[in-house]
Amino acid sequence: MTAVEWIISRFESGDMYNVEDVQFIKHQAMKMEKEQIVNAWETGAMTNYGDAKTYYDEIYGK
């Protein structure tokens, strides 16, 4: 499941009752997305860039 699919499922299931829930779920989704990007790089899907963490930080920020 991608980070986008995961966060949409959380919206659809009604898991977000207040601002704290939304912030927590947002941060979890961002963490998942970063892991997916790093994993894609490490498996060779993104060979035009240097190191995966540097790529992520430069493109998406920390």
Question: What do you see in this structure?
Answer:
The chain has 62 residues and is mainly α. Helices cover 69% and strands 0% of the residues. Helix 1 (3-12) runs antiparallel to helix 2.
What's a quick, concise take on this entry?
The chain has 62 residues and is mainly alpha-helical.
Characteristic key phrases:
62 residues; mainly alpha; 69% helix; elongated
Low-confidence parts: none
> Average pLDDT, to the nearest integer?
78
Radius of gyration, in Å, reads 14 Å
The number of helices is: 3
What characterizes the major β-sheet?
none
Span of the ends, CA to CA: 22 Å
What is the 3D shape?
A: elongated
Structural class: mainly alpha
- What is the percent of helical residues? 55-70%
Counted up, domains total 1
Number of separate strands: 0
* Strand proportion: under 5%
How are the SSEs ordered, and which strands pair?
Elements: H1 3-12, H2 19-42, H3 52-60
Helix pairs in contact: 1-2
